[in-house]
Write a structure and sequence with these properties.
With about 190 residues, the chain is of the alpha/beta class. The chain has a single domain, classed as Spore Coat Polysaccharide Biosynthesis Protein SpsA, Chain A (Alpha-Beta Complex). It has six helices and eight strands; from the N terminus they run E-H-E-E-H-E-H-E-E-E-H-H-E-H. Strands 1, 2, 3, 4, 5, 6, 7 and 8 form an eight-stranded mixed sheet that branches. Strand 1, helix 1 and strand 2 form a beta-alpha-beta unit. Helix 2 crosses helix 4.
């Protein structure tokens, strides 16, 4: 039986390199990065799904999304992760959370499921020898990150301390960081 898992989309940045917040950047079909990430997590079976968003964002009317505008601009990734995890920990029914940066909208649902199914404290996808995103965190690890018991300067360091497990995947979307329109175009041009 698959374990129940939640999803957290990290979309709180202002997207300087993209020219707009990446959460609201659009793929060629008109879908926003946020919508695509939400669709991927839902297709994989994640529930609930939350998303950190830029401060003062008016909640997008997306079914099945807990929108979490950040309390301040310029928060680093780990602070944004803590903000989202804190809210998710108030919900029950999940044992793992898959954390998907919004600038990785090309990840496949089967990759999300594979990461969520890993029985390790944390899991990272590896595509052709390169680590990528999203990552999976066991609920106990999220509790330690939020409480500060697992103190580390970055999420990567926290995962390494908790016990990171690499998961080989055949998904170029895991290493397709779409920080600029040019990077998005290059990622879309690659065979998937």
């Amino acid at each position: 039986m698959a374990q129940a898992f939640a999803g957290l989309i990290l979309g709180g940045g202002i997207g300087e390199r993209f020219g707009e917040p990446k959460a609201f950047a659009r793929l060629p079909d008109g879908t926003t990065f946020l919508e695509r990430c939400l669709d991927v997590l839902h297709a994989a079976g994640a529930a609930p799904v939350a998303a950190t968003l830029p401060p003062e964002t008016v909640e997008p009317p997306l079914d099945g999304l807990l929108a979490l505008p950040l309390p301040a601009p310029g928060m680093d990734m780990l602070a944004s992760v803590r903000h989202g995890l804190r809210r998710l920990l108030a919900t029950t029914g999940w044992n793992v959370v898959v954390v998907l940066p919004v600038d990785h909208p090309l990840v496949r649902p089967e990759t999300v499921r594979a990461l969520a199914a890993t029985a390790a404290p944390t899991a990272v996808p590896v595509y052709r020898g390169k680590r990528g995103h999203p990552v999976a965190l066991a609920r106990q690890v999220t509790e330690r990150i939020v409480s500060g018991d697992l103190a580390a300067p970055t999420l990567r360091d926290a995962m390494k301390s908790a016990g990171r497990h690499d998961v080989d995947v055949d998904d170029a979307g895991t290493v397709s960081n779409c920080n600029t329109p040019e990077q998005l175009a290059a990622a879309l041009a690659r065979p998937r």
